[in-house]
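Problem 12. The chain below contains 534 residues. Write out its predicted structure in token notation.
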Amino acid sequence: MQINQGGTAGGGLNLKKYFLSKNLKKDLPASIVVFLVALPLCLGIALASGAPLFAGILTGIIGGVVVGIFSGSQLSVAGPAAGLTVIVLNAITKLGSYETFLLAVMIAGALQILLGIIKAGTIANYFPSPVIEGMLAAIGIILIMKQFPHAVGYDADFEGDEGFSENGEGNNTFSGIMSAVGKINYGAVIIAGVSLLILIYWPKIKKVAMVPAPLLVVLSGIALSALFAGTGFALQEKQMVNLPMVNNSGEFFALFKSPNFAAITNKEVWITAFTIAVVASLETLLSLEAVDKIDPIKRISPTNRELVAQGAGNLVSGLLGGLPMTAVIVRSSANVNAGARTKVSAVFHGLMLLLSLLFIPKLINQIPLSCLAAILLMTGYKLARIGLFKHMWHKGLDQFIPFVVTIVAVVLTDLLIGVGIGMMVGIFYILRTNLRNPYFYQITTKGDKKTITLRLAEEVSFLNKAAIQVTLTSLPKGSDVIIDGSNSRFIDPDVLEIIHNYKHNAYTKGIIVQLIDVKDKYDVPPLKELVYKL
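Solution.
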């Protein structure tokens, strides 16, 4: 049964019920944290994508409000994704204009809605658990490595980048850290240090813990930045949040852009749309699965509904001039760690992005990136905690190795490539286990006569063919062999052929074969059930 905290059945939003519930005191502070984390990420991703900075903020607003309302996930947060920056940058260049690109975003949204309707989201059910756990830990490690330069006051890479390679020219995460060490701003270091202390110790003081620690971090960061002004510790403009300034309603509405619908027959538009739809959907499903793993209430998010919600978000984003979006694990994990309980946190964070742009851009631009980096450093530490590695080690090598391979692959490549490598290793161990367990083997002895019983598994696929054939051919001469299929709901035709051929030829070795409930033919089970068993 799905648990809906502060919502209606199926994940809907009942605001009246919500405001009367106990979730408000958890969701409102969490929304502030997500807002603070999302703001520089939206700007950084827009900058790296070659799009207007406003497009990044607009995408965050739509991801929070539109996707938040339609989504069935209570903790996932959508917005512009780092994994799409290269695709977006190349597409804008190739299509010739940003307006033509917006049409591709709208078409991608429609394709995602179609994917949700045909229930393509069920693919998320087949992501191995060690791979998802490894992805979470990898994101934690990436956050720590990527935010370290911001914490010490220097980062040539854009805020929000999750890939190993940086800025071309052979730069990567490690070289970025080394460059940051050589260009430390001690004012930023002090702000980051104070911020970390507040994040660690403030929640332990019960009398004041009701004031969110991240909010205090931001206020102290603004105060320290003002204090350092005019000294050797002063922060530079690039070390602060850089929100676009809007002076009046005319300037605000002038920031919106409309798609070039005349390009609907352009083949490249459709290729771009299909690419965005597939990549964004995969990243969304991975993030959704990961968020469900760290949800303290252990709710299960409806994946098909999420694809529809993301599609609606991309339709609106493309129509108004925004970027393509996905469910984003960085924002979502920050939401979970901040104590959110319902989707209202995501919706509120979108509204806060809008209000900050309209009413307090000057105040927002006084926030040092180093204090926001501290918040993400804490989030990264919680995702990649030592206890998780110990837990996976105790679960056995077949779980630990895919977990570690996924971590290394995601850290050294990017999210989708790394998870793909982890999936291959995870599937190898699933198949290996399956090959070793097609039957239960028992030997009983009565005098000089041996009776060997092979009790077949519930599902015996073609992958078990080699193991069963090797076992049958190695049985000792003169034995009685019982092949028991009473527990089997499906036996692959290739395996049945081996069993019947063995029975036919076994007399040459003095072996008597008895078949129990082994049919001549089995109905093929539904693909979903068979894949699950594999």
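Discussion. The chain has 22 helices and eight strands. Students who got a different answer should revisit the alignment rule from Section 12.3.
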